[in-house]
Amino acid sequence: MAASSREDDARFPGAAGARATDGAPPRPPGWVLAVAWAAVATLTALATAAVLAAPDPRVPAAVDVLVAVAALALVPLLWTRHAVAAALMLAALTAVSGAATPAATGAVLVVARWFPVRPALAVALAGTAGHAIQALWRPVGLPLGWWLVCDVAVHAALLGWGAYGQERAVVLATLRERARRAEAEQEQRVAEARVAERTRIAREMHDTLAHRLSLLAATAGALEYRPDAPPEQLAEAAGRVRAGVSGALDDLRTVVGLLRATAPDDLGPLPTLDDVPRLVAEAAGAGADVGYERRGDAAPPPAVAVAAYRAVQEGLTNARRHAPGAAVRVVVDVRPGEVRVVVTDDGGRSGGDPALAGTGTGLIGLRERVSLLGGSLDAGPRHPGYALDVRIPWR
User: Fold this and answer.
1) Where are the alpha helices (DSSP H) in 95-142?
2) Which of 3, 16, 79, 188 shows a CA-CA span of 20 to 30 A to 372?
């Protein structure tokens, strides 16, 4: 039990406060000590009066009075690191006079309440022996046999009462510490969940809005540099701008609605690999030279399909931002057990149009998404141009 208590103290520091710290019990407020000492003093006075009422001719009355005074002087030491020694001295005084009985029995209870079992048991045995010696050479109110039975029973009860109080306090302190830790861990989990949800929404906002807005910027740039284009082309470009703005507003409304909701669980209909041709068509409609090829007809899980779609989206967006006018090729290879997305362009990375500059977090978010699915992402210069290569396993 002692080893288990030490383990509890190590895991739950609050439990240590239920036992003596640094060899001394926690010191209660001054008024509590004063009341306790006054109660012991009153009982000691009554015990001394009872002893003096039946004097022993072999023992001067002054001895009983001195024992009572010494016992009261030792009582304050029970809340110091000398508590066990003081309790043993009180037990020795009971062998001389019954005037020390109230203080000695109180000492057994205090030591049993705050100290480990071994010193508490030693104090209880010493108190039992002291009262037994007193009964052997001084008159007591009961026959010797009954006196010894009561002596053992009282000290055993005091020992058990104090040990029970200590273990109960340890259990309560441990439960409080566990409750505090559980509350702190719950708050941490809630904070982590909030951060994860915000990151997820931010990633979705980037993947959807950034792609649409970059298309709008590219189309608007074409209108700016070709003001002399035929009216039919201008009308077509204006229609694409209007459709793109409408789509971006729809995406923005969806995200804002989720942010205002109490428990956002969904970010709307999830895209699939069947939506990739639409991405390619939008990019081509904005004036990009985009080629698309799909290999395989396997059906990956929704999470894998979304990640592959986002990979194509990020690759097209990066090519449009950093290599405007370059020829782009998109290959989606859907095999049993793996989806591979490769987006390449043949342009140089000169920074592109400043109006299309992004936040620089697109590849970071895509890498996080792919990593959560156990996949890999490789992005960097290729000769010629640049390549984004994403592999996502699935079962």
Assistant:
1) 101-114, 117-137
2) 188
Distance CA 93, CA 104 (A): 8
DSSP codes, 146-168: HHHHHHHHHHHHHHHHHHHHHHH
Domains of the chain (ranges; CATH) run 2-185 (no CATH), 271-395 (3.30.565.10)
Of 91, 76, 62, the residue nearest 155 (C-alpha): 91
Beta-sheet pairing, 338-345 with 327-335: antiparallel
Tell me whether residue 154 is exposed, middle or buried, using C-beta atoms within 10 angstroms of its C-beta: 0 to 12, 13 to 18, 19 or more.
middle
pLDDT per residue over 222-242, tens digit each?
666 666 777 776 677 777 776
In this structure, what DSSP letter does residue 115 have?
Answer: S
- Sequence-separated (6 or more) residues with CB below 8 Å from residue 287: 218, 219, 222
Q: Write out pLDDT tens, residues 175-201.
A: 989 988 888 888 888 777 777 766 766
Cis omega (within 30 of 0) on the bond before 324? no
User: Are the beta carbons of 192 and 224 closer than 8 angstroms?
Assistant: no
For 289, list phi and psi in degrees, rounded to 5: -95, 95
Q: Helix or strand or coil: residue 331?
A: strand
Q: Which residue has the tokens 């203080």?
A: 103
Distance CA 71, CA 33 (A): 15
Residue 9: which residues within 8 A CB-CB, separation 6 or more? 15, 16, 19
Nearest to 75 by CA among 44, 120, 98: 44
